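Contributing new records

If you add data, match the layout below exactly. Sequence lines come first and carry their own label; structure lines follow with theirs. Keep one chain per record. Anything else will be rejected by the validation script.
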Amino acid sequence: MAEKSLKPRGGVKLISENRKTAHAVDFHRVDRQRKAVEKSRTSTDKHAYFAGVAEARYVLRKVFRIAEEQAKAFGIDPLAHQALIQLLGSPKKRLQVNQLAERLDISPAFASSLVKTVANDGLVTRTRNEQDQRVTLVGVTVEGVETLVAIDREVEFHVHYFAAQLGVEVRESALSTLMFYVGLT
């Protein structure tokens, strides 16, 4: 029976059962690899470091490409899709335009233009902040949520297929570099 999410087992391993295969990730081994990668960054031989970076970026880029392709299949610009994710995923399920710009790493002017386009498509609402009328708050509409859920369903299918192709070594190498990227050194 296939599990849809990763479940911790004994605090050390995450097991993903996808179809008939099981992939175990040993986080003690990932942490040892992370330390080796960190050491490699400061040594003259940087191979281990760049091998980890290559694996992490390969996995990230492949998953991002899958998400972009699925958004396009639903008629949504990939950046608009990312905006919807950031909005719905925010603590209050809405953001100021400048906060959205920061989360998307784009200029506030471009974010404002993007919001207008997505609002015209009926996927977000724009309201003025009661305390400061200069500030626009953006939230996702019911149609926007439904669109995100539908895209995510397709992304999940394709990501599971891709992830099933990855060996444990690739997973662990990518994870060790992602730990570095988020400051777990």
